[in-house]
Specification:
Layout (H helix, E strand, L loop, with lengths): L1 H28 L24 H4 L22 H25 L7 H23 L1 H4 L7 H20 L2 H22 L3 H21 L6
Amino acid sequence: MAELNRQLQEYLAQSKVGGARTISQSSSSTVVDLGDPEPVSGSWFGRWSSPWSGSQSSGGSGFSWPWSAEPDPCLPGVSRRQRLVAFCACAVLSSLCFGLSALYAPLLLLYARKFALLWSLGSLFAIAAAAVLRGPSRLFAGLPTSPGAAAYLCALAGTLYAALSLHSTALTALGAALQVAVICACAVSLLPGGSAGIRFMGGVAAAAIKRTVTGKTTPI
């Protein structure tokens, strides 16, 4: 009886040791590494930018920000923090100019030059904000292949010259009209079908208005 009791105790002891080993192995296999991710070079916010870094987007499955924090040859010695501060300052000034120009919109005929000047300054600050954040060399690299952007910049420069140097209300209004025309042309080119789609929709709207005026309805 004593021998049987000793064997039973040894068996229970071995069972406890084997269960403890199994639990330790399973717990070690489920350990998750919660260490901080490595910062990505050229990212704006260091380690916090790693899930959206440009290296992941190179494979086609990740997300890439529309700006770059890489050093720009046009901004030598400017840090990321300074570029972010400059971007915020330009964005605030752009919003201020657009807001002030909206105050003159109801009196556009009386204050056409002031409205066009403030609108042009808002556009200039907005372009400067994008250039500081993305990099001037990268932003303006596509100008030779983008006639719409080049035409808009020329109209913007002409408007500012007419308002600040010539003090001509007529030329300032003309420059502002050219800016609006270029923006509308770019918006039309982005629509499905482009100018053909605009003509089609215009024809449909004109036919509907004509039927409404003449009192004729289309049979169902």
